[in-house]
Amino acid sequence: MATLTSTEPVPGLGAHRQRPPRRLGFSQKLSRWDVKVSPYLYISPFFILFGITGLFPLVYTAVVSVHEWNLLGGQGEFVGLQNFDDVLAQAVFWKSLVNTFSIFLLSSLPQLVVAITIAALLDQNIRNATFWRMGVLIPYVVAPIAVSLIFGRLFADQYGVINAMLELIGLEPVRWHSDRLASHFAISTMVNFRWTGYNALIFLAAMQAVPRDLYEAATIDGAGRARQFFSVTIPQIRATIIFVVITASIGGLQIFDEVRLYDQTGLGGADRQWMTTVLYMYDVAWGGQRDFGRAAAVAWMLFLLIVLIGLINFLVARRIASSGPRAPRVKRSVTKRLLQEAKAAGAGRPGPRAPTSGHGPKHSSTTTDRRNS
Amino acid sequence: MLSSTRPTRRRALAASAGIATLALALTACGGPSEGDDTVEGEDITLTVATFNNFGYTDELLAQYEAENPGVKVEQIVAAQSGDARTNLTTKLAAGGDGLADIEAIEVDWLPELMEYPELFVDLTDPELEGRWLDWKVEQATTPDGALIGYGTDIGPEAICYRQDLFEAAGLESDPAAVAELIGGEDATWDEYFAAGEKFVAASDVAWYDAGTAIAQGMVNQIDFAYENEDGTPKDLATNDEIKDIYDTITAQSAKGLSAGLGQWSDDWNAAFGKGAFATMLCPSWMTGPIESNSGGVTGWNVADVFPGGGGNWGGSFLTVPASGKNTDAAQKLAAWLTAPEQQTSAFVEAGTFPSQLEAQDSPEVQEFTNEFMNNAPTGAIFSNRAKAIESNPFKGPNYFNIHTTITDAITRVDVDKSDDPAASWDKAIEAFQALGL
Predict the structure, then answer these.
(1) Mutation for A interface: B323, B406, B418, most A CBs within 10 A
(2) How far separated are the first and last CA of chain B, in Å rounded?
(3) Which residue, of A157, A235, B86, B415, is most buried by count of CB atoms within 10 Å of its CB?
(4) DSSP B325-365
(5) What is the pLDDT of residues A279-314, one digit of tens each?
(6) 3-state secondary structure of B302
(7) What is the DSSP annotation of B58-109?
């Protein structure tokens, strides 16, 4: 903004000079718009695409959910919240919710713990670091369908590889499909197989951004490896942990491929013992009921549920991940006020923004705080 | 705000960003808008969407192109019928955009499409009367008399069995003797199960693969299994015929006749190679999966017998979606593809048993033998089995929903062993009520 004001013609000078051409005024106006508008223009492609592919379906799903809507028959009468009522009355819906949470917990929690551990190990000085780092990503490259087909054979009840090995060492074979918890465990294994390495790499990237002098200082202070991990690494990658927890929850509540392909009918077992909510939604729309209205109602309830879980996660993860005193947060209004005061004080000079709200200094000051406490 | 970028350059950037945005928006709205509007006399391309293997070879389609100048035929093949079904229903739901000119459908998903006959061209053609088995035509005829599909193949059922396992159990093993053991010309299910008890007493191997397969066979012999003639569903709780079948099948599981496998599951596929069961209900097309799953196990044969009268399992139709651009030309092609000559060559190619009377009696079909099935004369056996089919079970829009509650109930007892028969039946009633019919 300061630059703009400086290019404005200084009053009084115009009397001596020739009046500037009109188009210069226009170009000034343009450049003012440019400064104001172009940042939004640059980010607009994403939001336009999101509007078409994300927001519109979201709103349209809401419209569908309050109508009678058959897969083939199309739109029917307006029924208000009847579809939501119907879905809530179906026992399978509630069963699918329990299954979803069970699979979600069985997959997300171990996944995050293992991913952070792997990342911490990869963060050490090891030979052929790139090889190991790429190695953990390989499962992610494998298509989920291939993963499901392979694990389907591993976890087959009668002739599966895992049961064959269990019997070999004298253990009872596990009924991977019939037993509800066992099936959840098997499905979680597929999810973990695919996502652990991916999350580990994200954690690793965050860990590498932690300033090394923090570790040096910690070493001088006499902190061991474990203490450094919990008191330096974890607090420093807090933002990343929150990000991973939220994406993992969104993914965990939307598990579909693995359950769909876990057996031949793809409906979550004869007793729906491993049917997840997304699979239930698919079954309502394309399966027996062929009811898009109800499926849309399920979709919206799932959406709200994910938002809720995301919020809870955000709060919990923020608490867990920040050991020691929290970084002091500066309200925007305070920053603004300080800025204005500074402006008023040093009229004309650039505002002293850095000391009050700058990124770097704040960080280092908080970390020293933390170490001292 | 950084001020290092000169205004002119920034403007250029802004402009290009704007153009990029516009381009994105345009491509997003453009969508597929091909589709050459065909004028009479111009070249047209007809697409035929099938699944698995219909036996329509490139040579066969080229023959049609040669006989009909100006027509090009392209075949799109989906790997599984389920994929084809999802594709068809999704595109029908979207108004018919992107559908092939001819869409193959399976009898299993015919009922749900029959509810919306206006989505398909009525293919009734007096010239083609008497081409197919009567019940095949009935399946695709709406109550108003519109014919929405031309029959391609059918699945007349016989009994496939492991000759070597019969020998090992000390039973007579040639096809005629096995047919006699199971009950011969008017075999009943009781006789089939009794033979099974005899077999399992002398062997470690189960008698059949899956309780749900037997259910499929038995339910398919009831004219009105789950629904009344007008399509209204019967109450499952008072449906004695179905309860009888359920009780019979779960009782066999208790006797050890069933191998306790879920049809088409990984265990089921593997069980062929392990020799886990000795017989199975065997529609004509099942010889294919048996061969591909057996992996080196030989000794399969086919007995010309089926308990409880004849039975049909599966079979397909060719339909012409009404949204197509060249529906007349498509109907002509569909009629040609389902003519006896073409279906005979499809049978020789892919083993799909023809639904056309003339094709069934043709020497190519009658003299056909299956090398893998110990050279069993499968052509003659299955046309014999097709003649034994008397009933055409009514399958309304709710048939498969209700049938699923029964197969789930049987699976819980037969495969999962997680419920006893009575508890599982109660769950089936619950699931039926949840359907809200």
Answers:
(1) B418
(2) 65
(3) B415
(4) S-HHHHHHHHHHHTSHHHHHHHHHHH-PEE-BHHHHTSHHH
(5) 999 999 887 778 899 999 999 999 999 899 888 888
(6) strand
(7) HHHHHHHHHHSTTEEEEEEEESSHHHHHHHHHHHHHTTSTT--SEEEEEGGG
Tens digits of residue pLDDT in B383-399? 999 988 887 888 888 88
Residues 6+ apart with CB under 8 A from A351: A339, A342, A343
Q: Which residues of B are less than 8 Å from A49 in CB distance?
A: 24, 28
- Interface confidence, given as ipTM, is 0.75
Query: Are the Cβ atoms of B417 and A178 closer than 8 angstroms?
Result: yes
Asked if residues A160 and B266 have their Cβ atoms less than 8 Å apart, the reply is: yes
Burial of residue A287, with CB atoms counted within 10 A of its CB: 0-12 exposed, 13-18 middle, 19 or more buried: buried
Distance, CA of B277 to CA of B296 (rounded, Å)? 16
The number of beta carbons lying within 10 Å of the beta carbon of residue B57 is: 15
Query: In whole numbers, what is the pLDDT of chain B averaged over residues?
Result: 87
In this predicted model, which residue has the larger pLDDT, A80 or A12?
A: A80
d(CA B172, CA A332): 91
Which residue type occupies A72?
A: L
**More confident call, B107 vs B2:** B107
- The residue of A265, A282, A289, A294 whose CB has the most chain B CBs within 10 angstroms, and thus the best one to mutate to test that interface, is A265
Q: What is the pLDDT of residue B29?
A: 41
Q: What integer is the mean pLDDT of B189-198?
A: 95
Are A297 and A284 within 8 A, CB to CB?
no
Q: Please give the Cα distance from B64 to A109 (Å, whole number).
A: 61
Structure-block tokens of residue B157? 């059922």
Amino acid occupying residue B187: A
Q: Which amino acid belongs to residue A330?
A: V
Contact B335, B150 (CB under 8 A): yes
Q: Which domains does chain A have, with CATH numbers?
A: 92-321 (1.10.3720.10)
**pLDDT confidence of residue B420:** 93
pLDDT at B83: 83
Q: Which of residues 235-294 of A touch B (CB under 8 A)?
A: 263-265, 267, 269-271, 273, 286, 288-290, 292
